[in-house]
Amino acid sequence: MRSLHEALDTTTPGGRLVFHVFAALAEFIRELIVEGTREGLAAARASGKRLGRPPALTPEQVSHARHLLTAPDATVSSIAKLLGVSRSTIYKHVPELGGRDTKGVTAA
Q1: Rg of the chain in Å (alpha carbons)
Q2: Mapping DSSP to helix (H, G, I), strand (E, B) and coil, where does residue 5 land?
Q3: Cα separation, 53 vs 86, whole angstroms
Q4: What is the pLDDT of residues 42-97, one digit of tens each?
Q5: pLDDT digit string, tens, across residues 7-25
Q6: Which of 28, 62, 102, 106 has the most CB atoms lying inside 10 A of its own CB?
Q7: What is the architecture of the domain spanning 59-97?
Q8: What is the pTM of this model?
Q9: Domains of the chain: which residue ranges?
Q10: Read out DSSP for 34-103?
Q11: What angle do CA 98, 103, 107 make, to 5 degrees?
């Protein structure tokens, strides 16, 4: 590789040396960033912080969804729309639904 702007030519021994030094510095900086990220995550966990995306439904909303599902005409789709989440979120938070379809009828 030959860079005309930086006067770097990897066909010469000096150019290859500079190229390898740049690569080693980039790798070193990357490792420092990874190490700092791991230390930060470990410190957050140690202080009791919850990491990751927050849950889509609160425990109260899950309880409300379970209560609504006892109604004979309630559908998973209508409850999901009411709570502002997707149907799959309802299925995830209410695992006892299992084979229930969107019409609110248990699958055979």
Answers
A1: 28
A2: coil
A3: 16
A4: 999 999 998 999 888 999 999 999 999 888 888 999 999 999 999 999 999 888 87
A5: 778 888 988 898 899 999 9
A6: 62
A7: Orthogonal Bundle (1.10)
A8: 0.50
A9: 2-46, 59-97
A10: HHHHHHHHHHHHHTTPPPSSPPSS-HHHHHHHHHHHTSTT--HHHHHHHHTS-HHHHHHH-GGGTTB-TT
A11: 40
